[in-house]
Design brief:
The chain is an alpha+beta fold. The chain contains 4 helices and 3 strands, in the order αβααββα.
């Protein structure tokens, strides 16, 4: 898969995973990695950091671990808006591809 296409798809997948509530970064990555086993952890973390920097996600330190402090991610209002826009774009792309006979 083309790197730029994959980057956008991964962002959409990470946003979707965070849409159900705050999650530990590693847990989010493991969920998405099941579908994208060739993507490295550093790629996933880079996207999560960018989402936080751009205001689509928020980070906080969790206190539920018996080990080291864990960094959690959650969607912001801007993140929910971005997820809705990207989901709409994805659905439009599916319609276009189907019209062209690509399924």
């Amino acid at each position: 898969m083309d790197a730029q296409l994959k980057k956008g798809v991964l962002e959409l997948c990470l946003l979707q995973c965070l849409s159900s509530g705050p999650k530990y970064g590693y847990d989010v990555i493991q969920t998405v990695r099941e579908c994208f086993p060739d993507v490295t952890e550093s790629t996933f973390y880079a996207i999560l950091r960018r989402l936080a920097k751009e205001g689509a996600a928020d980070t906080f330190q969790g206190s539920e671990s018996n080990g080291p402090v864990r960094k959690y991610y959650r969607l912001t209002g801007e993140g929910r808006t971005r997820l809705a826009e990207m989901t709409g774009d994805w659905r439009n792309l599916q319609v276009i591809m189907a019209r062209l006979g690509i399924t």
